[in-house]
Amino acid sequence: MEVLREKVEEEEEAEREEAAERAEWVRTEKMMRPVEVRKEETTLTQETLRDLEKKLSEIQIPISAELPAFTKDTIDISKLPVSYKTNTPKEEHLLQVADNFSRQYSHLCPDRVPLFLHPLNECEVPKFVSTTLRPTLMPYPELYNWDSCAQFVSDFLTMVPLPDPLKPTIKSEEKVLPKKYTIRPPRDLCSRFEQEQEVKKQQEIRAQEKKQLREEEERLMEVEKAKPDALHGLRVHSWVLVLSGKREVPENFFIDAFTGHSYSTQDERFLGIESLWNHKNYWINMQDCWNCCKDLIFDLGDPVRWEYMLLGTDKSQLSLTEEDDSGINDDDDVENLGKEDEDKSFDMPHSWVEQIEISPEAFETRCPNGKKVIQYKRAKLEKWAPYLNSNGLVSRLTTYEDLECTNILEIKEWYQNREDMLELKHINKTTDLKTDYFKPGHPQALRVHSYKSMQPEMDRVIEFYEMARVDGLIKREETARTMTEYYQGRPDFLSYRHANFGPRVKKLALSSAESNPRPIVKITERFFRNSAKPAEEDVAERVFLLAEERIQLRYHCRDDHITASKREFLRRTEVDSKGNKIIMTPDMCISFEVEPMEHTKKLLYQYEAMMHLKREEKLSRHQVWESELEVLEILKLREEEEAAHTLTISIYDTKRNEKSKEYREAMERVMHEEHLRQMETQLDYLAPFLAQLPPGEKLTRWQAVRLKDECLSDFKQRLINKANLIQARFEKETQELQKKQQWYQENQVTLTPEDEDLYLSYCSQAMFRIRILEQRLNRHKELAPLKYLALEEKLYKDPRLGELQKIFA
Question: What are residue 488's phi and psi, to 5 degrees?
């Protein structure tokens, strides 16, 4: 408290009440000043203390005119706990301490903003700000890290800007440029001079329009330019300060609760700090913020820089050097100091708020009602809770061209839980280009798909996850006349394939792109360097000119050469028009070799090379055709996925997972049936017969035999009735089937196909019912004797029929 003491001495130096001011701060001064200085202080009189108390009571603390108020429409205060509506004696004491602290602060620092100490809560009861914080451990791992926790809080908050009286709204009227129309006279009636004058006039009009357009653009730029802020430095905002040290935090940083973004303490947007508080104490910043927050030292244990309100054991202590610590090494002084502090410390009361309880549904909903819209300059951000939209849309960012947000430039949509692994969709309204981004796991291993139309043979670019494909395809670019593919990691070292298509041959019958493929004119393939082959034998590029029946080869260039070898083959048919076999001639192979070799000049080598290239050409044409079919399959699959937009549901999500729900209901139904079955087995089979006898009377031997016979006779009759019932149903179904078959024989000629289908369906169902009844009847006949014997054995062992055991003993 040295800073406050110095300010008091400067302000009260011309007055005679210096002793009274020093008496008010004597309790804290004794903590910070050396022991020798404290011994020299004089004792204050009661009159001086009364004058000091009267002076402090006259201090008026400025209070903001606009206080946040809660109405009954926002919060139902009748359901709130008692701690929200009243204050405990310890809280009242804390409010008195805070009020005294605020009066002293306003007296010593009249130019600073009033302290935010005890605002009104929902029930309009003053509460100290530190007691509004209650640390709570939540069961969600996402809230353990500051970034995800800050994002979660920002989604629940909605910023409503306050009206600014210094910036009145002015609507400027837009001027409509006059449009001039001229009628060109007939050529015969217009002179050249008039035409020249008309051209000059049109040029002046265009120049004027350009000038007006340029002025309009300058006006818009001036409107968009940020004007000087009249309230710069006067606004007070609240944010979160995270101090370094605990949980491996390397440095101090700020968190904006409205956006969830973090900022460095050196950021120029933070002009200064008035006060800090947590759930244990309250601190005032006594440092100069002339350089924003860049030079602030966040050592809360330093009372010179941070003035604390409560003197308790939880206060951060300043690290003292040996020289500073030498003045309080006396054992007696330290012991007396501890005795003096016993009555001066004041612990923070327990928080009056309830623990934060977030249900899994609320945690997943995030935003209020599951949706939030944030309006920016020329942009709008929309957020939704997962599974709120049937297509999995969770976020959409729309960018506009104008400030009125009417002309859309681009749209970005983020998705979650999509079965097709769609993660982001980017739509450019200017070029009408759509780009889909996928996560790993798509059936076609898609990564990026850029297109303007889903129709085949249109401009598109498809990128793949090459590790998920066996052919190593990375990207495929397609236009109306070309298709380019890029590969990586193939065993044949293929890296590039480019196919040129010609105009499709028109057919009279309706044909699709699959049945009538585009004719291939040219195929260009490029290969990576194969270190296992010499450079003059390793093909770097080969071109199949199908229309010209030529094949061009270019080999890799050696490191010590500046040019590469080339070879061109004239591909001819193997037989001529008369059926004679064509022999390989030297003019069918034109080659340029950097270092000629003898075996390459032989016709046999050239013939084998040409035959190998023919096979490769056929394979390349087939692969291009398969690529076209794959594109059609991808487009068809994407249309089905966009139409269905099925969402994936975790097996642990029992509320949304229908399969898990059906399985759980089936298990519950089986358990219920098992319970009913057990209840049936536990039924008292002697209860109807024992009801005929007087209650509590012991059975005689004759009565026990009679009860046994009656019970067995009744059970036997029920078995017979059940068999007769099954037999009657079996006979009824058989007779109805015979009647239906007789009707079919009589009307077989006049029956329609629909009637025959109905007859066959009926016969199938009737035969199924007859077969089931027959199986039940046979099973009943097998189990009836066993059930009868089981009941007879139970009757012999029943303790209530103990006389039966004496008979057969």
Answer: -155, 140
Distance spanning both ends of the chain, measured CA to CA: 104
Confirm if 798 and 714 have CB atoms less than 8 A apart: no
Q: What is the pLDDT of residue 276?
A: 93
Q: What's the rounded Cα separation, in Å, for the pair 151 and 143?
A: 9
Residue pLDDT, tens place only, 286-315:
998 888 888 899 998 888 999 988 886 454
Q: With beta carbons less than 8 A apart as the criterion, state whether 69 and 321 touch.
A: no
Query: Edge to edge, what strands does the sheet with 262-264 contain?
Result: 240-242, 253-255, 262-264
- C-alpha dihedral sign at 360, 366, 369, 371: negative
What are the residues whose beta carbons fall under 8 Å from the beta carbon of 105, sequence distance 6 or more?
Answer: 112, 115, 284
Query: SS3 of 219, please?
Result: helix
CB 80 within 8 A of CB 123: yes
Counting as low any pLDDT under 70, the low residues of the chain are 1-74, 160-190, 223-227, 312-345, 506-515, 572-582, 680-684, 696, 803-809
Helix (H) or strand (E) holding 527: strand 520-527
- With residues binned 3-state (H G I as helix, E B as strand, rest as coil), the percentages for the chain, rounded to 5, are 40, 15, 45
CB 128 within 8 A of CB 117: yes
pLDDT of residue 7: 44
Cα four-point dihedral sign 371, 374, 375, 378:
negative
**Do 565 and 539 form a contact (C-beta atoms < 8 A)?**
no
Which value, in Å, is the radius of gyration of the alpha carbons in the chain?
47
Distance CA 184, CA 195 (A): 9
What does the pLDDT read at residue 67?
A: 42
- 565, 534 contact by CB (below 8 A): no
Contacts 24+ apart (CB under 8 A), 560-566: 561/535, 561/594, 563/594, 564/535, 564/540, 564/594, 565/536, 565/591, 565/592, 565/593, 565/594, 566/591, 566/592
- Alpha-carbon distance 84 to 381, whole Å? 36
Give me the pLDDT at residue 189, please: 62
Q: What pLDDT shows up at residue 413?
A: 96
pLDDT in the model for residue 364: 86
Residue whose C-alpha is closest to residue 778's, from 737, 726, 712 = 726
Residue 428 contacts residue 444 (beta carbons within 8 Å): no
Starting at the edge strand that comes first in sequence, how are the strands of the sheet with 282-285 ordered? 275-277, 282-285, 306-308
| 446 vs 468: CA distance, rounded Å | 9
Q: In angstroms, rounded to a whole number, what is the distance separating the alpha carbons of residues 54 and 437?
A: 72
DSSP per residue, 471-506 = S-EEEEEE-SSEEEEEE-S-TT-EEEEEEEE-PPPP
Q: Give the domain ranges of the chain.
A: 80-159+238-311+349-359, 418-502+516-643, 683-804
